[in-house]
Amino acid sequence: MGLDKASLVIDGRQMIMYVVDALREAFSDILVVAKDANDFRVPGVKTIGDCIEGNGPLVGIYSALSLCKTPYCFVIACDMPCADSNLIKWMAAACDGYDIFVPRLGSYLEPLFALYSRNCMAPIKDSLAKGDYRVRSIFSQANVGYADESDIRAIDPELRSFVNINTKDDLMSLLDIKRQPAAKAVGSSKI
Question: CATH number, domain at 174?
């Protein structure tokens, strides 16, 4: 899009605030990771810069894991303003025993709406040292669990949590989505 998506204003609010609000409903401790912490501030939320050299989300995941106080970090992209806090809570409850717990929608994985354990730090560091900045580069070195689409749809029937903004068309679609009421979830046996 050629602009800072986190600061993009939608209905009078920065996009990042929609994400932060969903996280606040699920967790007491929230950490925002930016390439440079001085360039980005979220009121009431600790912001850190990347703690190692490199670019991309894998560096941010490593930075978050290095400072988190819990065994897991829930990682979400800043451009996912429709995240459902109930889905986030369900995933946090279902991740035990896995190094990574990631949504699987058909054959597509969403690694930027997932939980990562501190066990991922060594594989991430190894991957970054090799110059491989792809988040999925660590999946073969980790015990990965999958949140299947049927379980996700039981909580978020329209999969709104996975709407992200990469283009102006995506932004226009988001504005249309925000004008429509969300379908009601019937519940899940795993909650």
Answer: 3.90.550.10
